[in-house]
Amino acid sequence: MLDEALDLDVPLAVEWCRTAASLGWRLPDSHLIKILDAMAKAPNVWIPALPVLGERGRWLMTLNPDWARVQKRNVPEDIEALRSRWPEATGAERTAIVDRFGDDHALIRELATTTWKTDSAKTRLQAVEALAGSPQAEDGEFLLSCLGDRSLEVRSAAARGAAKLRIPEFEEEVFALAQEFVQWEPTFSVRVPEMDDKRFERYGMASVKGAVHAYQRQGRFNGLMALIPPVRWLAMEPTAPPSLGQRLLGAVRQTLGAAEATGPARLLRRIPKDGDGATFRSVLLHATSTFGDVLWMEALLDESLMNFAYSTHGMLSSLPREKQEALARRAWNEDGRTRARVFLPFATSGQAWSPDFTRWFIPALIAESRLERPRFYPDSLRSLAMAMDLDAAEFPAVELAPGWDGLFNHWRQVIALRRSILRTLPTIPKP
Hints:
Layout: H1 2-8, H2 10-22, H3 32-41, H4 43-61, H5 65-74, H6 79-85, H7 91-100, H8 105-115, H9 121-132, H10 140-145, H11 152-165, H12 168-179, E1 182-183, E2 189-190, H13 214-225, H14 244-255, H15 263-268, H16 276-291, H17 294-304, H18 313-316, H19 321-332, H20 336-347, H21 355-369, H22 404-424
Antiparallel strand pairs: 1-2
Helix pairs in contact: 1-2, 2-4, 2-22, 3-4, 3-5, 4-5, 7-9, 8-9, 9-11, 16-17, 19-20
């Protein structure tokens, strides 16, 4: 079973290792070399494989440089020895240490502050990025202090981390600056900032004198907007009582049983879909993905999903599963670009599908394969069997075009092997 998994697909081998580890198994000696090679080639294999290697497997890792690198990269060393070594470590060694212990935020802050003044910009940036990716409340003071760093890259990373933490004074600061460039009344407009505005240097954006391209000024505005949680813009909702027309529209919607519009949806109605409005919507979409605001995601995707000219997968992956599947099915009926931006990233993300989505997808793809010019390449869909529901994944015996028949045969093999791994393997006596 493991031989088939390794031959067919790396994710299948991962699934086998996880199942075997949950049963308390270890790999038979005859398979150690093969799995160690897979660990060296695919980093996502080593975590599930380590528990099933056994003593002999861990000993073998020390004999081959490629395997030893995996072991060295993932086995922590003594923390006290690390603290003693840090001040004398070279810049390259410090970078490697930060990379290895990036999940221990307290340790990273402790080590970084001891040599901050003498560290290279690269090492300082590595430390800040380790914290800013998934910042913790305790990181706030350190990140704010880094906004005065001599490196623009360090300041930029620190600003992103501080924004994610929603530190009140920082949030007020960037929101006040952004409001200078957005006008809501009498008509919506965006004024992009000048490149010599030194206030942006605090957030890692360099000041430039002289003539510049328009896209550079736009980039400064985009960078500032990315630091602002979209919910802050709800302050721009009108405070005046609704007009007679608005009240009548609300009554009609209530009579028809339509859901009351959320705050984000109401605000979006004030933002045009072209010109400055399109610019604002695009950066708002990016910020929504960064801050993981589900209400804003749903409002933006429901209203404008098919109008965006770039990938929305970062947003889709943060939505509830049912919402993702509904949007993926909606995208299926749109143009080829929308399928590529919405359906394909969702389908190949590796997340488990529901039975209903699996049952819908297989006949839909069979119909797609029979088009004169299908909008998918079969090879781009090979990983989908790892996400399909095992009970609902039934492939009818139908004649398929060349290329598609190979894809469906591959899926049949993967589904059969997944069923064996997840259902038959636990019933086999422990070796």
